[in-house]
Amino acid sequence: MYISKLIHIFNVLNINSDKHENVNSLKYDIIDDKKPVKTSNLQSLDPVDTKYLSVSLDSHIIGERWKNFDFKSEKLKNLARGLAPAYLRLGGTAADLVTFVPDKPQLEKLDVTETHKWCANSKNGSKADEDLDELYKQLNKFNMSGDDLINIYNFSKEVGWTLLFDINVLKRLPDGSWDKSNAKQLLDFASANNLTGIVWQLGNEPNSFRHEFNITISGSQLGQDFLRLKELLQSYPLYNNSLLVGPDINQVGRRCTHLVNCAPLQYLDDVNQNSNSILDALTWHHYYVDGAKATLQQFLDPRMLDSLQDLYITIQNFSEFRKIDKPFWLGETSSAWSGGADGLSNTFVGGYNWIDKLGMSALYKHKVLIRQTFYHGCYSLLDENLDPKPDYWISLLYKKLVGLVPIDIGFQNRGKKCRLYIHQSTDERTVTVFGLNMDQNKTAEVVLSTYHDYTYDSYILTPKEGNIQSTEIMLNGQLLQLEKGQLPIMKPHTAKGKKLQIPSSSIVFFVFGYENPRDLPFLSDFK
């Protein structure tokens, strides 16, 4: 039995046409039919981390007294539990500006004026750009108290998350090395309060410090700084086995024109070597475009999604070239930098790149993706009223349906508006096919069999009223919304047939309910 005969997006229909005429100008082939692929060539890849889909809070909201992030909100806790297990990274540019002062809460809320520095939204949904430069200038007022740390730790623990804390690396000694004294204050306090299980980072996007702060810390120096932090952690029984990840580099896409001359990856390698490879995972940051300049056309262009694949191939080749044997994480990622793109990152169309990134990253052996952000910013999963945006619902369904083991069956997504991925399901006995169709007019079909009907659960996400820039999302035609602060039961439609229908402007999850995945037509030799 050949996959190329059984899985094939063979035709695209214009479902808005009364006649449903065939459209021959667009054809999605996700299998290379020139070379028949036997199902015995299926590859069950290494599993991702149980916290693969994780989230962040940007550290600057500490200086703004956490804005509307209410630690006591039951609605907020319910939303967070829906994404458990996960890491909660408290980090970002402002992480390297925070001073931990155990007994001195910051009573004054920093004044953040409206400019075009960082995209956010107000509680009524209007755009409210924040000038983070003004916040960063007030360094003497920007501190984190012991109560702040306990509040975010307790919140994380209650909802089933693990706190990942990014320590300020810009505390420097006269000789240029990292000053660990404030970190020691933090660890003394955390240990005394039995704050177990915290994962640690040191610094945020250090290869770009010259741009952000007019400061330069070399990769070799940062590697030695990580050694100092590791030694400090090992002096505490509570943290001697704590995970330590980094270095959270950025600009891999814009600065890597050639493998050998890739400055960001060379920086990462310098950190890894000079820290004696003590890091438990190597982290880098990824955004597709500039949020201040992003367009709808970019968010609908398959080439934007393909650009991430190019970076994964570059990182893969670089790792082999440098013999780096460490797991990689996307330590901070979203659609667009500078807080996201209003009207894009916070609407249905932003979900295309998110679901594609979730599928592609697992295939390229990235173990964790930390979504920037859970709350606050145009790219956040929750709005200022702590209500879900479309990407939250996509993430929730992913957590509910998609398991840890990706399966490579030869889908050729590159250049396509319709893109599919496949994993074992969360119950590890069935499989979930998931993906997207960015085409606004045409439905795609996947042939499962020419002779046999298959039963499966269908979850079809579409924008309200067909508006891809809507902030509301439908599941199988029903609006997704909280019910008195509780998550709704997300019920599938049970479908039966020889084909999968992937509607235009949709994000889909199909769960094949077979106790033995080998019963599936395209997984007959699955092991």
Number of domains: 2
Structural class: alpha/beta
Q: Please give the number of β-strands.
A: 25
Biggest sheet overview: 9 strands, antiparallel
Beta content: 15-25%
Broad shape: globular
Task: Report the end-to-end length measured between terminal Cα atoms.
Answer: 16 Å
Radius of gyration: 23 Å
Q: Tell me which CATH architecture of the largest domain applies here.
A: Alpha-Beta Barrel
Give the % helix.
Answer: 25-40%
Structure description:
The protein is an alpha/beta fold and 527 residues long. The protein has two domains: 3-41 and 409-523, Immunoglobulin-like (Sandwich); 53-69 and 81-95 and 144-367, TIM Barrel, CATH 3.20.20.80. The protein has 14 helices and 25 strands. It has helices at residues 3-6, 60-63, 74-81, 132-137, 146-159, 181-192, 209-213, 219-234, 252-255, 263-274, 296-299, 302-322, 350-363, 390-401; strands at residues 9-14, 22-23, 43-44, 53-58, 86-91, 99-101, 143-145, 161-167, 199-202, 245-249, 281-286, 289-290, 328-333, 336-337, 366-371, 402-408, 418-425, 431-437, 442-447, 454-463, 473-475, 478-479, 493-497, 499-502, 506-512. Strands 3, 16, 17, 18, 20, 21, 22, 23 and 25 form a nine-stranded antiparallel β-sheet that branches. The protein has an eight-stranded parallel β-sheet with strand order 9-8-5-4-15-13-11-10. α8 packs parallel to α10 and α13 (350-363) packs parallel to α14. The longest helix has 21 residues, at 302-322. It starts with a helix and ends in a 15-residue tail after the last strand. Residues 1-41, 112-116 and 523-527 have low confidence and may be disordered.
